[in-house]
Amino acid sequence: MKDKKLFAEDIVAEVRKDYERRREDRKPLELQWQLNMNFVNGNQYMQIMPTGEVEEFGKQYFWQEREVYNHIASVLETRMSKLTRVNTGLTVRPFSTDESDIQAAKLSTALISAVAEQNELSSLINDAVAWSEVTGSCFFKVVWDKDMGDVLCNDKGKNPVSVGDVRITVVPPFEIFPDNVCAGSLEECNSIIHAKAYPVSEIEDRWGVRTEGEEVNVFTLDNAAVAGGLGYNASVGNVISSKVDGYAVVIERYTRPTKDKPSGELVIVAGDKLLYYGDLPYITDVQQRRGFPFAQTNCIKKVGSFFGTSVVERMIPLQRSYNAVKNRKHEYLNRISMGILAVEDGSVDMDNLEEEGLSPGKVLIYRQGSNIPRFIETGSVPADFTYEEERLLSEFVTVSGVSELSKYSQTYGNMSGKAISLLVNQDDTRMSLSTASLRICIKRVCRIMLYLYKQFATEKRLKRISGENGEPELTYFNGNDLQCEDLVFNTQDDVTETVGEKRSMVLELIRMGVLTEADGTMSPRTKVKVLEMLGIGNWESAKDVDETQRKRAMKENLSLGKEQISACPYDDHSIHITEHIKCLLEESVLKDKKLYGLMDAHIKEHQMFEMMDESAAAKTLSAANQENANKD
If both were cysteines, with which of 63, 305, 390, 483 could 230 make a disulfide (CB 3.0 to 4.6 Å apart)? Predict the structure, then answer.
């Protein structure tokens, strides 16, 4: 027992020492992130001090103008609105043309959509995009939560036991500590620390260990009167670091598999207590290898750095210069409008003049024989201020990649439609690095999701998923029924195509006859797809009968290996025969004599029904012809 306690103490001490080292290595980046957050919130009179703190620099004179003209926020909103249009829908490609692989791919695709909806992935993507645009990087954490999913049993409403399900969370970069800040990506790191502050009560509920609270540094928002001008102050949002009590930092250190530890290592520490020590819990990499449950997205990839860089960091010098130009311009206008009064010493009551100024109708009394107070000529605002202001605005476009067309829907004079289209494409090209990183990140999230199902969903479970035509379906499956090797995106990047452009393309295809049959008609299935692409949605009440017959035939293919199934008189026998023959010709079915015999007998039963239908139809036609002949 004593040896076990000493071992735990050594592990805790080693992990905390490693955590402190990584904090120091990452501190310069953290200061930059804090500065970026302040500039986005409008607190743009902050700087990184040599002491390692982000502090405000005050006014030099009481009359100094210090207003904030926040162009960074508008650029960021435009970029975020474009990134949230990225289509992150994924399709799993079948491993082969076998019917079983096709069905496994379809089930995996539907499961991805169901879990994404369950975790509100679109909202999580918006949060991740916001963090990535401000700080340069953000992370998703994909884990198996045993408390999620359907409840199997409970003790009179207490201690429920659930089947478990996938849980996806957004992890800001402040919580991630790589073993090497110069590593190029997650794959190049040997270990990752995820450190997050939890209330001590939640730590005890989740891990069953009581730990002492500690002072934890967190970022909070506060109002700071750092802006304003002559005679007034303005408050802006201030992102500051403060300490809270009753919390403890939970440190999770994930270490990749090595020769000595083929399953890797996970150590969880809070305070001076060891919460968990063991193998990596999740299979997240190819070839059934254990790895990190994280996926990373970057605003802009930074060479030689684990974390990305943000456009905010590039725009900070421009924003400072723009604020300075605007404020100096307004100070000049203050001098022109209020004037600068020259007064001979002792000629007037200076206290009264400083307090009240030269108000309209004021009677100014000055000493007899002295010079009359006069205003000094200040001239007009130099044109250089205007030139510099316009130049800085154009540099915002150059640095951020967001033009006036995207920010304000404003064109340059009389522009043709082709010129506007070229400008839009240029903006989208500048965004392509960010969109590509986001799509790769979501692809990894979905792959980890399927790996977790294959690892933990070992028993059959019921899941509500969406079918091909949008109708809800209840499906029994386990992890072995899934396929997660090849994931592809459904469509091209939605940033380059607006909704209006897509609808125009669909209508053009209809006019060209691409979506119609040889006789000029459109099949019911195609109508449903066209309505979906036009944004009208799936009309669930108008189901495609042929597709329903096809799905029933596919389900029969999967069930024939377990039981004998009889053909139904209401089946569309031609559709069923086609789907069953496709399954019969698969190599796995041809080798299984029992399954081949069941499939062959079932196909012959459909063929018999089809011949009976044709015979009945022929008799009906003959009777009708005979009746017409008798009438003649």
Answer: 63
